Amino acid sequence: MDKQASVERRITAEEVAAYARLTGDFNPIHLDDAFAAGTPFGKRILHGTLTLTLLWRAFAALTPDRDLTGSQVSLRFTAPVGVGERAAAAAGPADEPGCLEGQVTNEAGKVAIRATLHLPNGKAA
Amino acid sequence: MPQPLIFDDFRPGSRLGTHRITLDAALIAAWTAVEPEAPLDAEGRLPPGLLVALAMRGYLAVVTPRPPGNVHAGMDLAFTGAAHQGETLELEILCLDKEDRKGRRWVHFGVSQTVGARPVLTARLTLIWAQ
């Protein structure tokens, strides 16, 4: 299968606040403009696992019945995505058979997440 | 006020605690407010993004207080079974390993999610610990 999937999304401040309530992660780097302005990022950034939702959408588009049971995912967070900024995910087959690879890039074009999905036997990518 | 956990506090192989989450309608609604395009499927199974969010919730509830400035560097995930609305998710949080490399303090945590005897998700979280 040579299919590719791509997703774009701007995750809003309201969605960030909702994710903080869901996970209990109220780190001010995600929620407080004044605090975030004093960090090396200079602005509020998304929770890494919230940014990851873009990649789940892209992987789901390439996965039969969207079920990941039996799958393994290895991922690295490599750059932040600012709150309200455009982020884009792209995924497609990896060189290794039975695997997908994907990444999320931030508005500046930097790779924010890089991931490999190993599908279980019988779910060919 | 308790002092934040520091690198020296962690013992590789130690069990740090457990956390329990009821997968009720309010939780599903909270998820939908975050990610409207990944709801439960026709069989009521939780999507991967929500399982990962709940792994973070378990880790954050148990490994506390944390120092400011930690960096979440990566995750390794194994999806082993389904969790459904109406069930109760049990989470166990472990310190898997830690290492000091060139002055950077890396800590690896394990989060195992089960519903009863059914394994659902195993997550290995990699953090750069600030203190």
Task: Write a short abstract of this structure.
The complex is a heterodimer of chains A (125) and B (131). Chain A has 125 residues and is α+β, with helices and mostly antiparallel strands.
Structure description:
The complex is a heterodimer of chains A (125) and B (131). Chain A is an alpha+beta fold and 125 residues long. Chain A contains 4 helices and 5 strands. Chain A starts with a strand and ends in a 7-residue tail after the last strand. The model of chain A has no long low-confidence stretch (mean pLDDT 94). With 131 residues, chain B is of the alpha+beta class. In chain B, a hairpin with a 2-residue loop joins strand 3 and strand 4 (104-115). The chains are: A alpha+beta (125), B alpha+beta (131). Chains A and B meet through helix 1, helix 4 and strand 2 of A and helix 1, helix 2 and strand 2 of B.
Describe the structure using short key phrases.
heterodimer, A: 125 residues, alpha+beta, 5-stranded antiparallel β-sheet, 28% strand, B: 131 residues, 2 helices, 5 strands, elongated
Blueprint (SSEs and pairs):
The complex is a heterodimer of chains A (125) and B (131).
Chain A: E1 5-10, H1 13-23, H2 28-31, H3 33-37, H4 48-62, E2 72-77, E3 86-93, E4 99-105, E5 111-118
Antiparallel strand pairs in A: 1-3, 2-5, 3-4, 4-5
Chain B: E1 15-22, H1 25-34, H2 48-62, E2 71-79, E3 88-101, E4 104-115, E5 118-129
Antiparallel strand pairs in B: 1-3, 2-5, 3-4, 4-5
Number of helices of chain A: 4
Helix content range of chain A? 25-40%
Show the largest interface.
A-B, 29 and 31 residues
Distance between the termini of chain B: 17 Å
Q: Would you tell me the structural class of the helices and strands of chain B?
A: alpha+beta
Characterize the quaternary organization of these chains. Answer: heterodimer
Contiguous runs where pLDDT drops below 50 for at least 5 residues of chain A: none
The count of DSSP E runs of length 2 or more, i.e. the number of strands of chain A, is 5
Rg of chain A computed from alpha carbons, rounded to a whole number of angstroms: 16 Å
Portion of residues in beta strands of chain B equals 35-45%
Distance between the termini of chain A: 6 Å
Which bin fits the share of residues in helices of chain B? 10-25%
**Secondary-structure content class of chain A:** alpha+beta
- Strand order within the widest beta sheet of chain B: 1-3-4-5-2
Number of strands of chain B: 5
- By DSSP (H or I, 4+ residues per run), the number of helices of chain B equals 2
Tell the overall outline of chain B. Answer: elongated
Q: What average pLDDT do the residues of chain B reach?
A: 96
